[in-house]
Amino acid sequence: MTKEIRTKIEINASPEKIWTVLTHQENYPNWNPFIRKMEGKLSIGERLQVIIQMNNSSKMTFKPIVLELEENQVLTWKGKFLISGLFDGTHTFELIDNNNGKTTFKQSEIFEGILVRFFNLENTKKGFERMNERIKQQCEK
What we know:
Elements: E1 2-11, H1 15-23, H2 28-31, E2 35-39, E3 49-52, E4 60-62, E5 65-70, E6 74-80, E7 88-97, E8 103-112, H3 122-139
Antiparallel strand pairs: 1-8, 2-3, 3-4, 5-6, 6-7, 7-8
Helix pairs in contact: 1-3
């Protein structure tokens, strides 16, 4: 079973500026309302530590592996809950240069596994949307 979340927002900034904000991990607690912490080397094959917290819910820690990394364009990681096949998520951030001083910021995740059917992902989608709004604010300052 799979489920997918897709969000996007147009930001009045270059892909380079957005990439700088997205990859400046130390600053996440100051602006990111969804991914509260991200640590680790942003390099293909490396494991990150990602802590998400939606609204007043409890924190969830994931240790995804970076699958794709193209500076100023795309960052993809894949995480799992306990073991592969239960509840796996492949998360992608994509920056598309609109060649007019604006960039389309896409955030998506494909969830796979036996437990996916039991999860309502509406709060997660709201978390993506809140993060999109805040990265827009951060980059358009």
